[in-house]
Amino acid sequence: MIPVPSGVRVWIATGHTDMRKGMQGLALLVQEHLKRDPHAGDLFVFRGRGGALIKILWHDGLGMSLYAKRLDRGRFVWPAAEGGAVALTSAQLGYMLEGIDWRNPQHTWRPTSAG
Description:
Blueprint: E1 10-13, H1 23-32, E2 43-47, E3 53-59, E4 64-70, E5 85-88, H2 90-97
Parallel strand pairs: 1-2
Antiparallel strand pairs: 1-5, 2-3, 3-4
């Protein structure tokens, strides 16, 4: 798991991204298309066309990091909006990285009584 400090903003780049891009290409995408500073300490999440691979770009104040995760089965849940960024909480990012629908996570079990 990525060590996400509290208070860090998480941005999902809507649509799909060319997953051949590395740190510099994704940082340029953040700067030019999302109109955000890639060195501000925010996390920027990108998904490929197939939906099973995401890349996360993060500048921690010392340097740029690029994380990647591929699901063996299924796809990452992605917003339907095009051309921009959607803000997530770090908890929602955690759900996403586990392959859970971050828009409406469901408990698998709830107690029926207190005693």
